[in-house]
Amino acid sequence: MARRRKTVAQHARLGSPSLAAQLLTLVGVIVAVVLVAGAGTIGYTAYSLAASIEENSVDLDTEVAQPPSVGAYEGPFDVLIVGTDECEPALIDLFPGRCTGPDADGRLNDVNMLVHVSDAPRRVTVVSFPRDLQLAIPECTDDDGVVHAAVSKESLNAAYGKGGLNCVVNTVSALSGLSIPFAAKASFGNVIAITDAIGGVEVCIGEGGLRDPKNTGIDWPAGPRTVQGAEALQFLRVRSGVGDGSDLARIGNQQQYLSSLSRKLTGGVLSDPAAVLRLATAASENITPSSSLANPIRIMQLALAAKDVPTSDITFVQFPVFDDPSNTNHVIPDQQAAAELWDALAQNRPLELTGQLGANGGVVEAAPTETTPPSDATETTPPSDAPEPTDAATSAPSDESVALPGNVNGSKADQATCTA
User: Which terminus of the chain has a lower count of CB atoms within 10 Å, N or C?
Assistant: First the structure.
């Protein structure tokens, strides 16, 4: 097929904010329980965490058996992290444009991240899905018992309103072909509490500074900046001041935050018992997990499986997309590029990124190095049938890296980037 230059989508220029620090909630719970166990104080702490987490847990269709004993989780696993856009009374003043309008009562899954942890050798890949990705949503039942019929094409961020966390899990599972046994949800207020507990994350603001007077009120100079609490949430929400102002540009900026967070966690925070306990408490009080994540022994198993992954093997990617021909404010899956990504994960191959650091100009490299220019994507027609669920454990791992298509943008956790 003829090759074409990727177009710059101007989608997601809506007033609805989003967040990404919900990844921290899961990481915080997992590593905190592991370190608490290592300190010999797991008894009371684990009981307290279990009571707090189990109370609001959510059942998934893809539940797994509860763990019989402590030990590293065997085989690969996937966790879906969902960030919801919902207005909590205490936060209305922070988001007047969102929380005083006609859609103030709505709840949307604006941030959707699939965390894939491979079998030995362990690697972590975080796949971010655009909120306005058009895809099939299966039949879902909401909290009131109302059954929402399956649809062949609708925005991903409509799934949560149709059936909560379970509906989002089933939607992403159908798209990816992966069975997803673990999931967690966080909202605006949850993010503020958790970023306070970790003591802030350093981000980089590129040349010209970062300004967004309309939505977040940000007016920050260029250079490094440590953000936490409400300021961290502002950074994760900012869109109009980043790149071309699209949601794809914002995803790259959010991944900058997560990369910096990964480096901070592995660089000393987790060796501070007081910080670990604050993080464990905040995380346990500020996530809504699937029932499979409500057991502290299960959390410990996942932590033991992933705790030693180096930052060079933690990869953040954006799910590959094309502009939707019927509405340029939306995107549709690039099925061919996505298939190559899923296949590389199933084979547990090291990932080589050939695309941009972030789509639509969201971030730039903090310390430029000589790299191979990103290749153009080859447009393909998305297949009509969704992939069948796969088990990555069936494929033998290989040390030979896979060069992902140029339409798969992203970065490694050991790469420093700046907001563009």
Answer: N
